[in-house]
Amino acid sequence: MSVRTHSLMRKASRFAARHTLQRWLPLRRQRAVISFSFDDVALSACTTGAALLQEYQARATFFVCGGLENQLEQGQLCHHGAQLQQLHSDGHEIACHTYSHLNCELQPLSVLQADWDRNRQYLAELGIPASGFAFPFGAYDLGSKHAAAQRFSYSRITGGGMQQGRADLHALRAQALYAGKTTDEEISHLIAEAAAQGAWLIFYSHEVSDQPGPWGTTPAQLRFALQTARDAGCELLNIRDAIQAYQAFSA
């Protein structure tokens, strides 16, 4: 198979994944919901990030790679098990990334499934049940979307945007919260749009540091997003709790 043919097949698979295998959740509540999530999970997200969230009585979703425990990721020290247990006890959602931070679009399904099972086992040994999932790098195709749908109650992707009117639980859209890329003006605009439309906006980031890497946020930026959401009258819920709230409203 030529490189060009392989590339076209991958693009076709990604297109099919975006437009098929949807599991729609009606978003009938009028009040907008803002969710914050952290991928990988950096130590600073567990400490500085969680402390800021607590100030606003907010709870986030932490997508954990078990293999990164006490390791460096992009120069940032990652979580350890006791911190995840504390976050879980405090009402945050602990969910799955992949154990080895795999790109799900590039891996055989057998490798993905074994890695997912290893990650869930890692969390289970900490006494943490995990049913949610986020695709590392936001990368997925038709096969991995289908396989994730068989294992997880929802999957989060990237790519920006928000959920309006309904949400595909197998591909929840999320917006980057990166200090070097996301401006305060963009944050304000997104939250204002969500508030006006009664939409569901999910932010994602990695570390929370005064000197973050390219995929992290600062305490000041996170505080700005939290305060802006609160001032706009939005409800602050982690992804699991947001889904439950929408499901209860639609029952």
Automatic annotation (TrEMBL):
Query: Looking at the record's lineage, which domain of life comes first?
Result: Bacteria
| Name the record gives this protein | Polysaccharide deacetylase family protein
Q: Which residues cross the membrane?
A: none
Task: Supply the source organism's classification.
Answer: Bacteria, Pseudomonadati, Pseudomonadota, Betaproteobacteria, Burkholderiales
Keyword annotations of the record: Signal
Check the record and name the CDD domains matching this protein: CE4_GLA_like_6s
Gene3D superfamilies noted in UniProt: Glycoside hydrolase/deacetylase (3.20.20.370)
NodB homology domain location = 31-148
